[in-house]
Amino acid sequence: MNDLADRFLSPANPNQRRYEALRALCVDRLPLPDAARRFGYAPGSLRNLLSDFRRHPDRPFFLPSARSARPPAADDPKAARRTRVLQLRSQHLSANQIAATLRQEGQPASVPTVAKILRDAGLPRLPRRTRAQLELAARPLAAPAASVLELDLSPRSFRTDFGGLFLFLPALAQLRFDTLVDRHGLPGSHTLPPAQAALSVLALKLWGIGRPARLMPDVLDQGPALFAGLNAVPKRSTLSEYSCRIDPRRLPRFAASWLDATANLGLPAGSSFDLDFHTVPYHGEQAVLEKHFVSKRSRRQRGVLTFLARDADHDVFCCADATVRKADQNEAVLRFAEAFRKRTGALPAELVFDSRLTTYAVLARLDQLGIRFLTLRRRSPNLVRDLLAADGWQQLALTNIGRKYRHPRALDRSVSLRGYPRPIRQIAVTGLGHDQPTLLLTNQLDAKPAALVDRYARRMVIENAIAESIDFFHMDALSSAVPLKIDADLQFTLMASTLYRLLGRRLGNGHQHMRARQLFERFVRTAAKVRIDERSVEVRLGRRAHNPLLIAAGFGEDRPAIPWLGNKTLKLVIGLDEPKQSHPNL
Fold first, then answer.
1. Rounded (5°) CA angle 102-103-108
2. What is the pTM for the complete model shown?
3. Which of 1.10.287, 2.40.50, 3.30.1150, 1.10.10 is the CATH number of 66-137?
4. C-alpha–C-alpha distance, residues 372 and 485, integer Å
5. Which residues touch 421 (CB under 8 Å, ≥6 apart)?
6. For 519-577, how does the pLDDT look when each residue is reduced to its tens digit (9 = 90+)?
7. Is 316 exposed, middle or buried (0-12, 13-18, 19+ CB in 10 A)?
8. Are strands 394-395 and 372-376 parallel, antiparallel or unpaired?
9. CA nearest 46: which of 20, 64, 7, 68?
10. How do residues 31-69 score in pLDDT, each as one tens digit?
11. Closest C-alpha among 574, 577, 575, 568 to residue 226
12. Dihedral angle at the C-alpha atoms of 410, 416, 417, 423, nearest 10 degrees?
C-alpha cells in the first residue's frame, strides 16, 4: 500500500503533480510552503498555479493536449532538443546554462525557448543561487583518456573549431610522418603510439594558441584528436611527460631527417643562413643554469641558451640547438657548419650573424674553411669619432629596406683586428636610423657595399622571426601552456615553422615569406564540419574571404590516404555550402 501511496504523494506526470499540489491546498488545507516543499515547487510557482486555477477552475487535469498526445517522430529535432533540455535540467542547470550547453553541442536554442520547454514540462524555476553555487553546480565534463584503441572511424559527423589543421595533413602524409617518427625511435606506448603522441604536440604548435594556458577548454573538441589519430587530445601532463621521455641524442638526427624529407616537397637546403642566439629565461630560485643575455629584457638572467639557424633562401628555421654552454658558445657556428656538411656534403656558402655570436679568432677559421661571413663590429667612442672624421664616404642605393633609409652613406675600407691574421673588410654605414654608424665586417672582398648592406638588413628579420616563434609557436617552454623540455620544444617549433613555409609556398602569390601568424589568421583559423564514412574523411571548411586562394592552390583536389586514420582518403571541401534539398512542390 505504501508503494501505491507514493504514486499520489510523488507523482511523475506533470498534470497529476499540479492536481495533487492544488488538491493539497484546496481540500487538505495544507499550508502553501508545506505543499510546495512536498511536491517540489517553489512557493511562488505554486501560488501562480493556484491563481491560474481560480481563474480557470474547469481546466481538465488528466486529458493530454493534442501536441503531447501525438508521439514525436524519431528524427524530430524539436523532440530531441526537448529531451536534451530535460536531461540538462536534471543536472540542476539553469535555463541560461542549458542554452549555452546546447549552443556548444551544435543545436542552439534561445533562453526563452528553453524556459518554455521547462514550463510546459511542469518544472518550476530554480531558486536564485550565488555565483559560487552556480560554479559548484556546473560540474566539469571528464574527457576520456587518449588512446588509439578507442579511435572511432565509423560513419559519423561532427563540428570542430580546428578545421584548418587538416590543411597540413596532405604534407604530413606525403612526408610519411608516422614512418619518420618510428624510424628514429621516439617514445610511445600501446595506447599512445609515437606518431600519435608527436602529432598531438605538433597540432598544438600549429594552432596559434600562444603561451597563456588556454588549452584545456578545447580538449573536448574532436578535431585535434582526429588530426593525431586519437579519440581525444592527450592531457597536459601526458604531453609534458612525453617530451621528458625523448632521448635528446635522437632529436638532432630526427630534425635532419625531417629537413631531408621536406626537401622533396619544395624546401631544398639553401646556401645562406642567418644565425642568432636566444635565451629561454628561467624564473625559479634553484636551478643549475648559467646566466645569459636576454635581449628583450636587456639584462643577464639564468636560462637556457639556444642556437638558431634560419635558411635565408626559404625563410625557415633549419637548426635549433639547446645544448649550448657558455664555455663553448663561440664554437656554435663551427658546429653548425660541420653538421651542415655531414647532412648535405658541402659547407654553407654564407653565414650572417651579429657581433655577440662569436669571436674574431672563429672568424679566421671560417675564412680558412672558405665560408663567406657577414657580421657586425662593436663600436667604441674613439672608433666612431675617427670614422666620422674620415674622408671617402659614398652614398648607397638600397632596395631591401624602408624608403626613408634607402640612401645611406658608407665608408668602405680594410682594417686590422686582433685575432684575425690579415686585414678584413669593414663597411661603416650611416643614415640607417641609428645614432651611431653601423659597422659591417666581411671576408667578401668583391661584393658591392650596397649588396652587403641589403643582405644584412635581411638578417635583421631573424630577430622578428624569433619573436614570432616565442609568441605564435610558444617557444619559451618554461612559460607555455604545455611545458615541454627545451630541446623537444625547439624541434617541434622547427617542424611547425617548416609546415607553415610549405603552406605559404604552395599558396604562392606573395605568401612564400608571409609570417606564420598571418597565414594562420587567413587560412588556418577556421571551423569545419567533419564527416567520416567507410572510405574517406571529408572536412568541409567554413567560408572565408581567402578560400579562393586555397582552391587555386589545389587543396580541394587533394585525395591523400592518411595512414594513421586507417588509410582513409582525406577530402577537403573548401568554402562550399551543404547541398540543399529542393521542395517537391517547387
1. 80
2. 0.70
3. 1.10.10
4. 34
5. 364
6. 998 999 899 999 999 999 999 998 888 888 898 888 888 899 999 999 999 999 986 54
7. buried
8. unpaired
9. 20
10. 888 888 888 888 888 888 888 888 777 767 665 544 444
11. 568
12. 90
Closest by CA position to 150, among listed 226, 220, 252, 230? 230
SS3 label, residue 416: coil
- The domain spans of the chain are 2-55, 66-137
Query: What average pLDDT does range 206-232 have in this prediction?
Result: 74
What's the CA gap between 69 and 66, in Å, rounded? 5
The arrangement of strands across the sheet holding 568-574 comes to 156-160, 528-532, 536-541, 568-574, 561-562
What are the start-end ranges of the H helices in 27-138?
32-39, 43-55, 66-69, 77-89, 95-104, 111-120, 131-137
Report pLDDT for 540.
Answer: 93
Distance CA 406, CA 33 (A): 85
Nearest to 265 by CA among 163, 170, 167: 170
Give the N- to C-terminal CA distance of the chain in Å, as an integer. Answer: 62
DSSP string, 349-389: SEEE--TTS--HHHHHHHHHTT-EEEEE----HHHHHHHHH
CA–CA separation, 302 and 291 (whole Å)? 4
State the cell numbers at 553: 592552390
Helix (H) or strand (E) holding 540: strand 536-541
In 3D, which of 357, 295, 294 has the Cα closest to residue 324? 357
Write out pLDDT tens, residues 75-103.
567 788 888 888 888 777 888 888 888 88
Give the contacts of 233 (CB within 8 A, at least 6 positions apart).
Answer: 143, 146, 200, 203, 218, 219, 221, 224, 225
Q: Where are the alpha helices (DSSP H) in 229-322?
A: 236-245, 250-263
